[in-house]
Amino acid sequence: MRHGKKTNHLGRKTAHRKAMLANMACSLIEHKRINTTVAKAKALKNFVEPMITKSKEDTTHNRRIVMSRLRQKDAVTELFRDVAVKVGDRPGGYTRIIKLGNRLGDNADMAMIELVDYNELYNAGKSTKKKSTRRSRRGGGSSAAAATAPAAATKAKDAKKEEE
């Protein structure tokens, strides 16, 4: 039974799995998107998103924590310098998994995992979107119409006085 076991071991020993996820995370940070299997993409998402959250606050402690997991200085530098600035206002959900179909050789489910803020195709219309306000059902529209009605009535009275 696998009660309470949250991580997918991916058929590997612990050291191999940690090294593979660290390498995949470095590739994701460097290239902004990578193709892999669906199981590895889901495991990578759980591995890399806490590190992106840590990179939003640039302290020595956070850099050391991320460095201990990634083990590549260039990837850590790019994560804290470029990626953290781009995702600074996002409250989570930094990666997106898009399923691609099956691999020809062994019929494995393939997926593309990418950093959300670096895909210009999906983010094209979102930059121009303005923040909408909530509208209530209780007389919000009728009070605005009632406020403009007296102004229109006074304009009509003024126009009559000018004619006389």
From TrEMBL:
Coiled-coil boundaries: none
Claim: Ribosomal protein is one of the keywords in the record: yes
Biased composition (Basic residues): 127-138
A GO cellular component annotation in the UniProt record: cytosolic large ribosomal subunit
One Gene Ontology biological process: translation
GO molecular function (one): structural constituent of ribosome
Xref: InterPro entries: Ribosomal_bL17 (IPR000456), Ribosomal_bL17_CS (IPR047859), Ribosomal_bL17_sf (IPR036373)
Designated gene of the protein: rplQ
Superkingdom in the source lineage: Bacteria
Record-linked PANTHER family: LARGE RIBOSOMAL SUBUNIT PROTEIN BL17M, RIBOSOMAL PROTEIN L17
Swiss-Prot/TrEMBL keywords: Ribonucleoprotein, Ribosomal protein
Protein name: Large ribosomal subunit protein bL17
Subunit annotation: Part of the 50S ribosomal subunit. Contacts protein L32.
Family: Belongs to the bacterial ribosomal protein bL17 family.
Biased composition (Low complexity): 143-154
Stretch list, region Disordered: 125-164
Compositionally biased intervals (Basic and acidic residues): 155-164
